[in-house]
Amino acid sequence: MKHQTKHLLLAISLLISVPVAALSAPTAPAPAAGQWDSFNNAGMDAYNKGNFPEAERSLKAALDLAEKLGDSDARTAASLNNLASVYDSQSKYAQAEPLYKRAIELREKNAGTQSPELAASLNNLAVLYLNQGKFADAEAIFKRVLSIQEKSGKADDPQLANSLNNLGSLYETQSKFAEAEPLFKRALEIDRKASGGNQSAIAIDLNNLAELDRNQQKYAEAEDLFRQALAINEKTLGPDHPDVGKGLTNLANVCFSQKKVDEAEALYKRALVIEEKSLGPNHPDVATTLNGLATLYDVQGKYSAAGPMFQRALAIREKALGPDHPSVANTLENYAVHLRETKQTAAAVDMELRAKSIREKNKAQ
Question: Average of pLDDT values for 25-37?
Fold first, then answer.
């Protein structure tokens, strides 16, 4: 059986550094600067606390103000980027993508093709494609972002660490572990050298290295790194933050792999409470935790508990990620095992064939 964990990607690249965020604040003066700053800062604060509905409200208000200033004002592209980031974090990809693309267009025109502002929006679009399983598109854009950042001459820039993490995560998703590891290690080195050490970024680096170890069955090493990352996030973000939920699921997965079943179950359950409260019941992170907990119940023979969880995880992933995403294949495969164990062979075969088709489509990318 397979367990899919989540990277705490610096998925949303900040011009000011935070864990999973792409919020950026321009410096161009304008009459409405104070009001725009107020809405934008409120949105950023809500975003970083995992309060996405409030973030969306504030950043929509900031975008409305920015639109009145015109496309040449840096606030317009920033507002598009920031609001897209909130949609992206809720897996509202259809709403996020056109906003990212418009932000990229404006930043190319106004800030130039080598600007850090452009790199931030490009990074975010690449992460969106990664989350949708569009690996070829994501890789091309990540490499463009790295090229922009490398040319800046700032070898210790936290934004470079961000991009290294994201490209490494793409390679790991494709089981290209040898390509991923040096990128993750370089990101960790950069973040540790940063002024004061960005603890949230370090937690992301540790998490990604831990997941790399887990995928290579180095469970003891992975568990130690996951625990380090979780401790940092609980201290810096608080016990109910969505990133803490992700960390709990990741730790649960590696405990499960080591047959620490009781601890894994408790971790999954705690993660599920946090994620449903902070992200809503239909977020992909909820599906990931459900998938892990259902698989655990299957191993324990608790089939009546496992079945509905697999069904719910599958429905969430199909709706949020699309029918051909690798995460959908992951749940189909686990659900197929459950169906075989409960003597539902025909349904199991259907799930296996669907999963195989998805894997082949993604392999062709």
Answer: 64
